[in-house]
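Q: Entry one of two.
A:
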Amino acid sequence: IGQKVLGVLVVESKRLDAFDEKDQKLLEILASHAATALENSEYAKNLETRARELQESQEKFERLFMDSPEAYVYLDPDFHILDFNPRFTELFGYSLDEVKGKHVNDVIVPEEKMGEGEMLDKEALKGYVSYDTVRKRKDGSLVPVSISAAPITVEGKLIGCVGLYKDITER
C-alpha cells in the first residue's frame, strides 16, 4: 500500500511461462485487495483497542464523579444542571429529576447572593475559581460551603463546567 510492503503474494506453476501479462495484472489487483484487507484489519484492531481504552477512561471518570465524598455538579456552558453525584443530593436535598436543566443559581443560590453567583459563573468560565460562601438547601436552610469550579474544554471548545461543593460547617 503506497510505499509500504505488507507481504508477498507468490503464485507458482509447474509449467514454464505459465503466466502472461493479463495474469500479472490480475495478481497485482489481488495483491492490492489483500493488502487493503490487511490494512483494514489492523485499523479495526486499533479502533477496538482505542474504544476499550475510552470505555475504561469513561468508567474511571464516572467512578471518581459518583463516588466522591464531595458534592459535584456537571453543568452545560450556560450553567444549567446536567448531572450531579449522590453527595450533592445529600448536601442540598434535590434529586436530579427535580432540577435537571435548571440554572444552578436558581436552585441553590440564596436570593441575596445572586450577584455573587453570577460573578462566580463568569470567573469559572475563565478558569479555576475557589470561593467560600453559603448556599441554599431544598428546605431553605443555608449551608456554608467552599466552592471550586472550572471549565471543561474538549479540543479547545467549552462543553461545560464542573462545580465542587464542600460542606465547611465544621470550620
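Q: Entry two of two.
A:
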Amino acid sequence: RCYGEKGEDKHCKLMLTTNENGSWSEPTPLPFQDPSVNYGQPSLSKDGKTLLFVAEHPDGWGGTDIWITEKNELGEWSEPRLMSRSINTIGNEAFPYMDEDTLYFSSDFHQGMGGLDVFDQNFADGGGLAGEVGLCNQ
C-alpha cells in the first residue's frame, strides 16, 4: 500500500492481512519497516515462511535491492537481511521470485541484453547466497 498526497512522493509499505472464516482482516504494515523507506514487490515462498521484497533502503548497495526475511515459530518476521552482492548491485534489482531452490529476479546492472533482464541464482548444492548469477534464456 502506498501513502502520499497527489503530486507528492509516495512511500509504499508491505502489508499483512489474514483470512479467517472467509473474512479478511484489516491490513497492517509489517513491523520491521522504516517510515522513510519505499518497500514493494513482495514475494512469499511456497511454504509461507520466507518473504523476499525490494526496498530503496539507505543500508542497501544502490538503487533498489532485494531483501529477505523469515517467519519464526511464533509467526513473527525476522529483521530483514540484504541479499548478497552476487545478487544486489549499485543498479536496481527488482521482481524477486523464489521457485524451490532458484531465485529469479530482474536487474538493470548485471550484464545482460539491456534494461531489466531476468536472472536466476540456484541455491542447491551449496550455491548459497554467494553463488553465480546467470542470465535466463541466454
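A: Comment on entry two: The chain has no helices and 14 strands. Confidence is low (pLDDT under 50) at residues 127-131.
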